[in-house]
Amino acid sequence: MDKITFLNYLEGELSRLPKVERDKIMYEYETKFFEAQNENKDDTELIHELGEPRSIAKKVYADLAIQDAESAPNFKNVLHAIMATLGLSFFNIFFIIIPFLIVALILLIVIVVGALMMLGPILSIVNIFIYGFHWVDLTNIIFSISFLGFGLMLLIAGLKLIEVSYKWVLKYLRWCIRLIRRSAE
């Protein structure tokens, strides 16, 4: 593969990017070829060092997806960043999916338990209607209120953990991308 073929193939792989971004990246790679030519380096040697245009494009898309998730941290953007990073290598399936599923499971458990604990007062009210007022005593009321309070605390803690986990997941994805780049060099 020669320089022109490489650059054309890279531009084709980057076709989903906005023109301004694509032009910026293409200029960066054209500059690398120009600098290599000034150092009397062969184009094929530089192409071998740079890697396949498809893998370069995947790294660019993963970086942009992570940047989008950092600027607007919501579930859709974080999931898109995870999926873009997964495409970089087989290694990522184990080092991204498994930790993500563990974190998601823990957060789901905290939120579900918090929501279920908040049902205590509702169950008390239902029991009053089913069994009558003779069922009501002070301990049941205290337990219902404490379950409501503890459930609210768990629910709020779960929502705060989701917010914090977005940042942790994005930092972890950045670390994975750096690790892949180091291993490729």
From TrEMBL:
The chain crosses the membrane at residues 78-98, 105-129, 141-162. The keyword Transmembrane helix applies. Keywords: Membrane, Transmembrane, Transmembrane helix. It comes from the Bacteria. The keyword Transmembrane helix applies. This is Predicted membrane protein.
